[in-house]
Fold:
Amino acid sequence: MKKQLFWWGERALLVFVAVVALFPILWMFLTAFKQPLDAYRVSIFFTPTFNNFKAVFDEPWYLGRMVMNSVIVASVTVMISVPCASLAAYAFSRFRMRGRKFLFFLVLSTQFIPAVVIVLPFFLMFRQLGLLDTRLALIIVNLAIVTPFVIWMIKGFIDAIPVEAEEAAMVDGASRLRVIRDIVLPMAAPGILTSSIFCFILTWNEFLFALIITRREAVTLPVGLVNFRTERGDLWELMSAAGVMITVPIFIMAIIIQKHFTRGMTAGAVK
Amino acid sequence: MAEVRLENVVKRYGGFTALPKLDLHVNEGEFLVLLGPSGCGKTTTMRLIAGLEEITEGDLLIGGERVNDKEPKDRDIAMVFQNYGLYPHMSVADNIGYPLKLRGLGKSERMAQVRKVAEKVELGELLDRRPSELSGGQRQRVALARAIVRRPQLFLMDEPLSNLDAKLRVTMRAELKHMHHEMGITTVYVTHDQMEAMTLASRIVVMNKGRIVQLDTPERIYSEPADLFVADFIGSPSMNLIHGQIAGGTFTAEGISLPVSAPDRAKVVLGIRPEDLQISDASTAPIKAPIFALELTGESTLVTLRAGATQLCARGAADFRAKMDDTCGLAPRPGGRIHLFDPESGLRLPS
Amino acid sequence: MRDRGLPFVLMAPAFLIVLATTLYPLSYSLITSFREWRLTRQRRPGDFVGIDNYTGAFTNHEFLSSLWVTTVFVTISVVATVVLAMALALLLRRTGRLHTFVRIILILPFAMSPALIGVSFRFMFNPEFGVLAQGLGAIFPFLKGVAWLADPRFAMGILIVTDVWHWVPYMTFMCLGGLTAVPRETEEAARIDGASGFRILWEIILPQMRGVLVVVAILKTIFALKMFDQVVTLTGGGPGASTETLAYFVFKVGFHWFDMGQASAMAWILTAIMMVISIWYVRLLMSERKLVTA
Ligand SMILES: Nc1ncnc2c1ncn2[C@@H]1O[C@H](COP(=O)(O)OP(=O)(O)O)[C@@H](O)[C@H]1O
Ligand SMILES: [Mg+2]
Structure:
C-alpha cells in the first residue's frame, strides 16, 4: 500500500517536472504556428499557419541573414577554439611540468571574469579598428568566453582515459604526435564532440556581446529577437517563430550529447 | 637481443626517492625477474628502462649504448603492462599489428604476421573483436601477441599475470617460459609473486624499499637468502625465524635447544624452513612446544607450534593427526639447512 | 612523462587566445577605470582621475540599488537552484523509462537561449493574454489581475524563476554525477542498520555530496552574478530600477550613458566581488580533502 503510494507519487512528480520543463517551450512552438489573433488570446485550439515563418524571413525582419550570422560565428568559434583547447587540455592532463597548476588556475579563473568587464575594451578597440558590427569581432569575443571552458571540459574527458594505452603506443614505437593522432584523438572523440557542441550552444546563445557589438550587419539570432519589439508592441507570433528557429538546431544537438553531458560536467568538476 | 645495464641509477619524484641507487646488469638472453613487495620500486625500474620515466641520475645502457635521452619509441623494446594497455578503439588484429604499422609495414604483410602470432597465442578466432569483448586471459594474450609480433631487443613485463585467476596463471606461466626458450629474447619481468619468480627466472632480483637486496639464481635465493628480508619473503609458508643465542655449539631459545656448528653469539636469529623440519618424538626432540594450529594442504599438513613468543611451522605428512595444545616435538630433517643471521644488520652469517 | 618542451608547445595556441581575449582587455579596462572618459564628449581616453570613478560608484544611488538587487537575486536564485537540483537528482537517480525521458528533456531548458527565455516568459506573464498570467489567475483567485511584470516584487520573482528554470537542469546533471560517486553500499548498510529514508538522505547521502554541492553553489553564484540576458529581454531592468542587476547597470552606464571610466570602475567592482567569492570557493574546496579541482 505504502509502496504503491510512493510509486504513484514518484511518477506524478516526474510528470510534473516534465511539464514544467516543457511547457514554456511548447507554448512558444504553438504560438509560432498561430495567426496573430490566436496569439493574443490564450487559445489551445486554432488553425495552424506557416505565415509567421514566412514573415520573419521577409522584409523587414530578414531572419535569414541572422541565421547566417549565428551559424558562421558559432561554427568558426568552435573550429578555432576546440582544436586549440584540445591540445592544451591534453598537455594539462598528461604532463607534470612546472607551473602546470598555476597555468590551469589562470585558465579557470578567466571564467570568473564578468563579460561586462571585457566587453568595454573590446567595444572601444573594435570601434577604433572599424570592426564594430562584424562577424569577426563577434568570433573574437566569443573565443574569450568559450576557450577556457572548453579546455576545462576536454581535460575532464582526457583525464578519464587510461594513460597505459598511450604508454604502450610509445613503447611500440609511436612518436608523441603519432600517439595523439592514433590513440588519444580516437579515444577522446566523444568527449571532444560533446565539448564542441557545448561550445556551439554557448556561442549560439550568446547575447551580451552581440547586443553591444552588432547593429545591422552581424546581428545574431538572440539579439534579433529584440527587433520584434516595435512601436506597435511586441509581435509575439513572430518572436515565437524566430524562437523556434533559434531553438530547433540547438535542441537537436543537445539531445545528441545528452548522454555524455553528465559525464563531461562532473569529470571536470569533481574527481 | 641485448644486455641491459643500470649504473648508479637514481629516481626521485619531487622530494620522494623511489630508487636511491640502483646497479643492475641484465645478461643477454636471460629471463630476469624483479621480485619484491608492493611499492618497492619494481614498476619504476621497469618504466625507467622503457623510457616512460626520466632517469634522475645515473646511466642506462641497452646493448652497450647509453639510452638515457632516447625516446621509448627508439629503444626497440616491447612491454606488457599490468592492465595490458590495449588500444580500446582498435580490433584485436589492429592492436597486435600496430607496432608493425608504426614501422611502415604494408597491410597484407602486417595481417600475415598478425595471423601467425595470433595462432601461436590461440587468438586466431578473435581477431575482429574489440578488447572490451574479451576475457582477462584473452586480453592478456593480446598484449603478449602485440609484444612478440616484432622481435624487439628486450621484453619488459610488469606483473602480466596478476589479473588472471590462479589456474590461468599457471598455464600462462608455462607459455611464457616456453616462449622465452623459443625466442631467446632478453626479458625483464616484474612480479610480487615468488612462485612466479621461482618458476620463470634465470635470475631473481629481490628488491626492498628501492634497493636490490639479493641478485641470484632461484635456487640460491631459496637456499642461501642474503638477509632476513629475503629469508622471510621467499618461501611459503615462510622460513621460521627464531631469536636466541649460541653458546657452546648449541642454539637456545624458549622451548628450543638445537645443536649448531657456529661460534658463540649473544644475539642471533636462526632460520629454518618448514620443509627442513620434521615431526619427531616429543621426549627427545630439540624443539618442544604445544600445537597452535593444524592446516591440511592436501599434499602435507602444516603444523604450527607456539614456543614462547615465536611460532614455528613445520611441514608434516598428510596423514599426521594430533590434537590442538598437545605438545609436539620437531627436529631438523637430515640434510636440512639451518641459516643464521645477525639480528642487528639482518645479514646472513657465514656458517 | 618526458618531452620537456612539448606541453608548452601544445598549450601555446590556447594560451594565445586566452591572453589576447581576456588578459589584454582586462588590463585595458582596469586602466580605463582610473580615467575620465565620456564617449559623448571625447573620442580619446581623458585624464587619469585617481579613484574618482570608484568613489563615484559608491555614491551613486542607482549603483547601490543595483548592488542590493543583485544580492537579493543571487541569494534566492542560488538557494532555490541548489535545493531543486539536489531534489531532482534524487528523483532521477533511479533508472526507469520515465526517469530517462525526463533526464533527456531536462537538457532543453538549459540549451535554450537565455534571451529567448526572457522573451517567452514575458509573453506568458502578459496580464491580458499571457497563458501563465491567465492560468494562475484562474487557479488562485487572489492572483487574478496582478500586473506581473509591472509589479516590482513579482518582476523580481519572475526574473528568478526564469533563471532557476534555465539552470536547474545543468545543476541536476552535476548532482547526478556526484550521486554516482556515492556508493550504494553505504546506503544499503545504513538501511540494514535501520535508518529511515530521511536519515539516510541527511546523514549518509548529503555529507558525501558536500563537495559537489559546494561546486554547484559556487558555479551558480558566479552565473547569477553575471545575470544580464533576461534582464534585457524580460524586464528591461524595470519596473523602475527594481530588477537592474549589476551587470545590467554597468551595461547601461557604458552603452546608454557612454561613461567608459565609470562603467569600467563598476565592472571591476563586480569582478572583485566575484574574485572574493571564487577564492572563498577554492578555499572551501581545498578543505574538502577528497576533492581535486585541477
Ligand atoms: N609518479 C609518481 N610520483 C610519485 N611517487 C611515485 C610515482 N610512481 C611511483 N611512485 C612511488 O615510488 C615507489 C615505488 O613505486 P612502484 O615502482 O610503482 O612500486 P612497485 O614495486 O609496486 O611496482 C612507491 O612508493 C610509489 O608511491
Ligand atoms: Mg608495480
About this structure: The domain at 4-231 of chain B is CATH 3.40.50.300 (Rossmann fold).
